[in-house]
Write a structure and sequence with these properties.
Radius of gyration: 20 Å
Structural class: alpha+beta
Number of helices: 15
Strand order of the largest sheet: 3-4-2-1-5
Number of domains: 2
Largest sheet: 5 strands, mixed
Shape: globular
Order of helices and strands: HEEEEHHEHHHHHHHHHHHH
Strand content: 5-15%
Length: 338
């Protein structure tokens, strides 16, 4: 099946029409994500990111709606009150850029027009850009500090998820200086260019090191991890059923699998590490202790030095990496008169 931009936009428009019929409390809808750019497909699969703004608190924060094997809707829901402070939105490291670049699809009361105009006002001021980046950095540094004192209820998977979130904040502290924050599938594919534009090309190999790249091997070794990854996802679906996190909805498996297959055939096969680890760890986290699929994840993570004795070395390296990122932000600030 040939997937075109027009086809995807038609699906988005039809979804908006269906969900804004008389009686709906939706006051605005906007499109965001990869469909706004030229590279909306990765491995032949994609999603359609729509955000619905409701008068009152919505029933769900997020929905995944399958369209076919290669396309799904990723629907976010917010209450109107969360958009009232436009100055705060402009400085928010995620919502600010999203609102700046998004495409309104439904806005009869011009609520979104006002919000977007306010966010876009002085959005590119260097001090605002730096504040958004520093928020990402500070989150990462605080999370790094948490690894030095045990947290109640910590498990190997919960520690790993916290580590990966800290790395995501760190990456986007850099990426936010010259564009949108980077999302899961393209994070390692795009980060090298973002870091290079700041004259920090060494940040990409350092990032791969934090993810166990030195122990990961090449394409054959990475390829061998995919069956265990899929088994963990399938087990998570079976075990949790109605309580399954939206991230692990069955419709999203092909979205990641197709992207990872494409990465493994490309020039940067280790780019697969980010979506692989994020989703695999999330799946393992909802499985009970001792589950076969969870143990397979733990063995793979230990082989990458991300669980067990090797993790202490990763935390030490992460400290140094965070210092380098802080120096990058300081250098950018000085160059831009902040």
């Amino acid at each position: 099946m040939r997937i075109t931009r027009d086809m995807l936009l038609n699906i988005a428009d039809e979804t908006v029409k269906q969900r804004t019929r008389p009686g709906s409390d939706v006051i605005a809808v906007y499109l965001s994500g990869s469909l706004l750019g030229d590279e909306y497909l990765l491995g032949g699969a994609t999603d359609i990111d729509l955000t619905f703004i409701h008068l009152e608190t919505p029933q769900a924060d997020r929905e995944i709606v399958p369209i076919n094997d290669l396309v799904h809707l990723d629907l976010a829901h917010y209450a109107q009150r969360e958009f009232r402070d436009t100055r705060t939105l402009r400085l928010h490291p995620w919502m600010g850029p999203t609102l700046f670049y998004c495409k309104p699809l439904y806005d009869p009361q011009h609520f979104l027009d006002f919000i977007q105009a306010s966010v876009r006002g002085q959005f590119d001021r260097p001090d605002y850009m730096l504040r958004r980046s520093r928020q990402q950095y500070e989150h990462a540094r605080q999370m790094w500090m948490s690894f030095h004192s045990p947290q109640e209820g910590d498990t190997p998977t919960s520690i790993m998820l916290r580590y990966l979130r800290a790395i995501e904040h760190t990456v986007n502290a850099v990426a936010s200086l010259n564009g949108m924050p980077l999302t899961e599938r393209r994070l390692l594919l795009a980060f090298g260019e973002r870091a290079g534009a700041l004259n920090r090309p060494g940040l990409l190999p350092g990032l791969l090191g934090l993810l166990g790249g030195a122990n990961a091997g090449g394409t054959p070794e990475l390829q061998q991890m995919l069956p265990a990854w899929q088994a963990a996802w399938n087990a998570a679906v079976e075990e949790t059923r109605q309580d399954l996190p939206a991230r692990l909805h069955p419709a999203r498996m092909a979205y990641y699998a197709k992207a990872m297959e494409r990465m493994l055939k490309g020039e940067s096969p280790q780019a697969v590490l980010w979506p692989l680890l994020r989703t695999w760890t999330s799946a393992a986290d909802v499985l009970p202790e001792g589950h076969t699929a969870r143990l397979a994840w733990q063995n793979a993570a230990a082989g990458l030095g991300l669980v067990g004795d090797g993790f202490a070395e990763r935390i030490e390296a992460f400290d140094i990496y965070l210092d380098t990122v802080e120096e990058t932000l300081d250098a950018w600030a000085q160059a831009n008169g902040v």
